[in-house]
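Cross-posted from the bioinformatics board.
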Amino acid sequence: MIQVKGLCKSFDDFTALSDLNVHVETGSIYGLIGVNGSGKTTLIKHLTGVYMPDAGQIIYDGEDIYENMGVKERLGYIPDDLYFFNSYNLRDMASFYRKIYPRWNEPRYQAMLQEFGLSERRKISKFSKGMQKQAAFILTMSTMPDYLILDEPIDGLDPLIRKKVWRYVVSDVAERQMTVLVSSHNLREMEGICDYIGILSGGRMMIERDLEELKTDIHKVQIAFKDQQDRTFAELNILHREKRGSVELLIVRDSGDHVKSVLEKEEPAVLDMLPLSLEEIFIYEMGGESSEIQSILF
Amino acid sequence: MFQLDLKSRKSIYEQIVDNCKELIVAGVLAPNDKLPSVRELSATLTVNPNTIQKAYRELEQTGWIYTVSGLGCFVSESRHEPDPKQVRGLLNKIGMLVKELLFLGLPPEEVKQEIDKVIQERGVSH
């Protein structure tokens, strides 16, 4: 389990993170999302022990990560901006990793090399961006991490490779209860992979919830009545309301059964209830104030 | 065997539950057939194993499947009492479809025949 408690970080007079709390359960895949500049990468740099917190703690199963070799040996991290030693090829990198990570799994490394079809002898700097990502992934997964932190992992990977990458990740979660935190803007892909979602905004955690619960709690309703009477639906927690011709569109945050029973009492001619996609929830939560964003979405 | 639609508004978890039920109802999965393990299914669908675990748990609680520890999940023999909520939902769906057919101008007799045909087919196969 990864816990972040009351994390604060400022750079000069800019506050990047303030009183941030994160909980990642063992064996879950946690999706970290947020607009650009909301602090995702700053949080990840704290989670990997690169930055020292101004205040607060980052704890991996009871142990603080900062300057802690024992935890870092069991932590796999693929940053957004990859770094390889100059003029190293994969073989050189692998022998470097072998010395640093005690749980290095040579058979797995060889198997993955075959499966991804990367050359061991070509310089990594000569690889394409996508191939470098694959190289980083092969090296990281061969260290058999207990915790895996991925910053924009699928950026620049083709759909086939993406599928392979995710297959390794979910298998390790299923087989060895690996704990994963992944940041991405590809919300559709996150929806299938993650079971927990944290939405960062302005250096704070806005929402941190089970994805399933998050989705069953917010609904998009299309409703129409035979008469043109105005109704208020005071019993419902309506986030957004809009009339399009004779059909009304509501975004309601309530349980589905409750919404349905309240609306059905009014005997609508049309009643359609749809769950929101993660993409819509995200845009709604982030753009809640701005009507411009809402009109694009709904 | 399982099909997921990432564009669907239905959650992955619901899709797996419904998919299993459909396969069982259609007889593709017979009683005592083994379901794919959580590990297998999560790797083939590249879906979070916890989501699949949750879907299987739901299917077990509602009596569609049973678990033998160490061996996996299997399709149940006997059907449980139907869930009234689910029954109501399905009946609503039939209602909507019948209304639509009548709206399109199909004679009521033909609609009835169609429904009877389905009932008879099921009756023969059991």
